[in-house]
Amino acid sequence: MRKALLAIILAAAACPAQADPVADFYRGKSITMLVASGVGGGYDTYARVFARYATKHIPGAPTIIAKNMPAAGGLAAASTLFNNADKDGLTMAALSNVVTLDPLFGNPGARFDALKMGWLGSIGKLQNVCATWHTSPVKTIEDARKREVITAGAGASSNTAVVPRMVNELLGTRFKVIAGYDPAGGLTMAVESGEAEGICGLSWSTIKASRPDWIAGRKLNVILQMSMTRLPDLPDVPSALDLITDPQRKQVLELVLIRQETGRPFATPPGTPPDRFAALRRAFDATMKDPDFLADAERNQMEIEPLTGAEIDALLAKAYGSPRNIVAEAAALVDPPGAKKP
């Protein structure tokens, strides 16, 4: 009896009490984080600040290495993640919000299934605004209905190209997009230099993170907000949802705005091992509550309004379950016939 008991004790001592295969896998490795924007933009800022603190919440504390892939308005990063990334848990992506519904809207550049992505969560919602430079005579949305307003845009499927087209159709404004600017710094430089009169479709959180001097120096006339909920910073700026009276058109806009609710989403490829995927989801949620992360976010003027991966799953399920006629109208607003494809 004593010999048997001694054998049990020795066996227990020889094995770790709580072996962690996920930690063992990640220890000493690095995770590639695809970033669907250029260096220095709002998405890039959010992604890199996240990476600095997420690593300590992932079992095994792997390093996270950013790889910027700004092509095609974020579609390149999403397609690469879905189709080409190894499904071992060593690749994630900080994606642009527009890609979440591009497959639903029939964008031919969306070579992925958003419902099969492994969504980790989102750092914050995106509330897009339309704004003109402080020297512009266009100070209100009514002014933008009376005269043409040149705005800077990135790729054809980017918010800065899609949102002005939508606002023109829904509210009768006269925004004219000059597309092709670098989404990182080219958009803001175009406004500052006078090449464009404003930007329509850039998120308020991006402006605060990348151009805080614009806010402090009152260099913008913010004339419209495109969001499901109103921004506390802009209580007197009208919301597009409040200005639309037709119930069906409002439903169409709400579908489009689900993309903004997904905000700044992070994902893994489909087929990531369940235990590693679950660990990455937990790490994402823990990072959103990390005091050091939150302090760094505040220093960088980042808006933190996180969604869990499950909440993103629910939003996408709702969007992809929308009636066909609503989807068709929303798709026509986002990518009208004849628009240049990425």
Low-confidence stretches: 8-15, 337-342
> Main β-sheet, in a few words?
6 strands, mixed
Count of alpha/pi helices? 15
Percentage of residues in DSSP E strands: 15-25%
- What is CATH's topology name of the largest domain? D-Maltodextrin-Binding Protein, domain 2
Helix content: 40-55%
> Can you say what the CATH homologous superfamily of the largest domain is?
Bordetella uptake gene, domain 1
Biggest sheet, strands in spatial order? 2-1-3-10-4-11
N- to C-terminal separation? Answer: 75 Å
Number of domains: 2
Topology:
Layout: H1 2-14, H2 21-26, E1 30-35, H3 42-54, E2 63-68, H4 75-83, E3 91-94, E4 118-122, E5 128-133, H5 141-146, E6 149-152, H6 159-171, E7 175-178, H7 186-193, E8 198-203, H8 204-210, H9 212-216, E9 220-226, H10 240-243, H11 247-262, E10 265-268, H12 274-288, H13 291-299, E11 307-308, H14 309-320, H15 324-334
Parallel strand pairs: 1-2, 1-3, 6-7
Antiparallel strand pairs: 3-10, 4-10, 4-11, 5-8, 5-9
Helix pairs in contact: 3-13, 11-14, 11-15
